Structures are given as structure tokens and as C-alpha cells.
Amino acid sequence: MSNLDTRILFRPFSIRSLELKNRIVMAPMTRLFSPEGIPGEASAAYYRRRAEGRVGLILSEGTVIDRPASRNDSAIPFFHGDAALAGWKNVIDAVHSAGGLMAPQIWHTGAARYINGWEPDAPVESPSGLDSPGDPRGVAMSEENIADTISAFAKAAADAKRLGFDTVEIHGAHGYLIDQFFWAGTNQRTDRYGGATIKERSRFASEIVSAVRLAVGPEFPIIMRVSQWKQQDYGVRVAETPQQMEDWLLPLVEAGVDVLHCSQRRFWEPEFPEIDGSNGLNCAGWAKKVTGAATISVGSVGLDNDVTNAFAGKGSAPASLDRLIERMEREEFDLIAVGRALMSDPDWVAKVENGNYAALEGFNPAALGELL
Ligand SMILES: Cc1cc2nc3c(=O)[nH]c(=O)nc-3n(C[C@H](O)[C@H](O)[C@H](O)COP(=O)(O)O)c2cc1C
Predict the structure, then answer these.
(1) Which domains does the chain have, with CATH numbers?
(2) Full-model pTM
(3) What does the pLDDT look like over 2-23, one tens digit per residue?
(4) Ligand 1 pocket: which of 26, 29, 263 to mutate (most atoms within 8 A of CB)
(5) Could you give the dihedral angle defined by the CA atoms of residues 250, 252, 254 and 259, in that order, rounded to the nearest 10 degrees?
(6) In this prediction, what percent of the chain has a pLDDT beyond 70?
(7) Where is the NADH:flavin oxidoreductase/NADH oxidase N-terminal domain (predicted)?
(8) Which of 12, 39, 66, 353 has its CB surrounded by the most CB atoms within 10 Å?
(9) CA 62 to ligand 1 centroid distance, Å
(10) Cβ(25)–Cβ(301) under 8 Å?
């Protein structure tokens, strides 16, 4: 890798009011270091170190909207209430003081369980009272619950803008609330939020995006994270064809999403390998092609194994960035998110920019236990 030319990663990128110095995004990573839901000084210092380390755009850990059971662990930060928002104000000020830009990832965990079995006081809510197909948990949302949830996402986005964040990411991936609406196996509703087609099941997300757009105005960029895979089932897919992908994602873009963040575990894997002549486009590549929106890709950048290893407490060795450079040269996607490598090493981006590849250490699972 010593001769690798990574300059293509360090071109600026802009969309609406956002002007990034490079193409590297810190992936959102839940850290569980916010006792009582309030991000403290250690969180501000953690994100500031990534800004000092020249990350183009920092996406926060998932932080939850104002609904009674919107989180599945007590150390997940709120994005509502005076104390938590004051904590987030401290975070964004710290990031800005180091020259960084940042979005909160706003989230509702729906009926998804957390590994430690923690339960909120209120019943969990989801489209049809299912964590995964055939696995009941909590209650099915009423139309009033849905309307309140949409308002809570809009309020969180408005607060993000008011606190000074540079953009906002809506978490629509990985089998949490919004994705439980997309997923036919967990959305069995017979009202206008359900239906046999992915276009119908996209309505809840589209209404969230419309409400967020209204709340933040025309200049503030909106990012939405989506994924084919669910933590409940890594093999399941929302869209089996490019047409279904368009039916799923285009309504979101039409409602106001500027950037689609397509989560996959290995960024180089083609989304529809069976389609000849598709040049092996990955999830973000197809999302860009079928919607015309800007996209972020992600998945095992700079590492020799995927994120499921981290969930099993395993580390990863560094891996070459050749494939990433090749994909950026093809303009398959606009931005690339980096997760574990940046959790272990706040200076990962600066090291790549300086060509100091020998100093890249991969992912050390000890990083999960502290805010390095
Ligand atoms: C500890 C941990 C926590 C994560 N939490 C979130 C999260 O809150 N929201 C989210 O969208 N993805 C989350 N992810 C997934 C990452 O954003 C990213 O997609 C994944 O780690 C793959 O990128 P990587 O291979 O560069 O690590 C998490 C990943 C890890 C390792």
C-alpha cells in the first residue's frame, strides 16, 4: 500500500449548506457511554479527537427521539430534553472548535432488542408488534403513535439545526423502527403505512422526511441511512431488484433526502451480482443510479474482516485501501464511511492523508470498552 495515491479521498464535497473538506465520514457507532441518556465531557472529547484527526463529516452514535420507548439500552443518549441537548451542544461546539463538521444520527429502536436485555419502562412500539417475523414484542403503533413519532423526528432535526449541527442523519437501517416499516416480515399493517409493495411500506419514512424537511428548511442537508440487512436477519433484503430499490428509495429522495447512506458489511460486494453489465455496483452505487441522490458507502474499509466480528469481541488487521480508491475513481458513490478503524484510532484519516500507512493498526476490540 506504500505507493497508494489516496488524493481522490481528499477532494472536497458539497451539498446544500454542507461543505466537506474530504470524502471520509465517521460511521455512526453506539457507544453506551451516556449514563441517564446525557452525553458528557468524555463524549465531547471523543468526537473532538475525530475532528482533530481530519474526519470530513462525523456522524454521531444513534441518539433517540422523544418517544416513551425509543431506546433499547439505558446508556444510549437522548436527543431531547434540556440536559441531553445541552450535552449535545457541548459536543458540537467541541467538534467545531477543532474544525470538524457533524450530524447527530436520530433514531428510534422500535421493537429491536438490545443484547443485554434492558427494557424501557413503556411498552416498545413497532408497525405490527414484532421484533422480527414470528417474534412478537411490544405493541403495534396506532395512527396517533405514528403521527407523534413523525413529529418527534422533526423536532429532533429542528433541534439539531438549532444547536448548530451541520446536517442530520435519520436512522432508517438495521431492523430498527423505520426499517421495521420497510420490512414486509415486520410490517403487516393493513392501513396506509403497510401494504404488499415496498413503495407502500416506504410511506412512514417518507412522511418523516417531509416533516424533517419542513422543520429544517431548504438549505439544511438531510441524510438517511438504509440497509438491506437487518440485525435480526443478515440475509434478508428489502429490495430484490433495482426496480424495487427505486420504489423504496426514490420516495425518500422526493420527500427531501439529499444523501442516502447505504449500509453494507463489505463495501466492495455487488448488490445485484446477477445483473450483467452493472459493473458490480454496490448498494450505494445502485441507490445513486436509481435515485440520482448523493450516496455514502460503508463496510470494512481498511480492515480485513466485517463488523460482525466486532460484535463478537474480535479485532481486525489493517487491509489495503486499493479497492476503495478504485471505487472512488469510478464515482460509484460520493462519500465513504469508516467505522471500527476510527473507533480504534482517531487519527486514522490524518494518517491516510499523510501516506503514513505503516502507522495504521486496524481495529482493537479494547476500543469498545472506552471512549478513546
Ligand atoms: C460498536 C458499534 C456500534 C454501532 N452502532 C451503530 C449505530 O448506532 N447506528 C448505525 O447506523 N450503525 C451502527 N453501527 C454500524 C456502523 O455504523 C458501520 O456501518 C459498521 O461498523 C461497518 O463499518 P466498519 O466496517 O467500517 O466498522 C455500529 C457498529 C459498531 C461496531
Answers:
(1) 7-369 (3.20.20.70)
(2) 0.99
(3) 689 999 999 999 999 999 999 9
(4) 29
(5) -90
(6) 99
(7) 9-356
(8) 39
(9) 10
(10) no
